[in-house]
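Final report, closing paragraph on structural work. Over the funding period we assembled a curated collection of sequence-structure pairs, and we close with a single example.
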Amino acid sequence: MPLLYSIIESPAHPDLSALYRELGLRELRFPSQRKAIAHLRREPPDWVVAEFFYGWGNNYAGANVSNLDVLLHSLRKYAPQARSIVLAGPDQIPHVDKLAALFELHAVLPLPLDRERMREALAG
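Its predicted structure, as stored:
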């Protein structure tokens, strides 16, 4: 059964657990990327769904574009087959291209999220 990591760092992240079960995915939910990264070695995911937050100024020590850089870098090492789906609010969408220039993203989906768009992203 394919494994999906849901990294839920804000209330905007939709609860799609029922959809994941319907699609035959096993979901592990994490309240932070740090906890997801710690779990990578034990059980690498096939999918990762996480919300994007652009690194305005020095929020991320000036070295990273967003909150997802460290996670996506870790995926390269521990789960290179994993596909990443990035969720982004309207104010964040214009900045996702900076992340996409550094990492391969399977899909970028706008928030609020339409359940059918997630279904399509997971099917593709």
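Helices lie at 17-22, 33-40, 69-78, 96-100, 115-123. Residues 36 and 52 are 15 Å apart (CA to CA). We thank the funder for supporting this effort.
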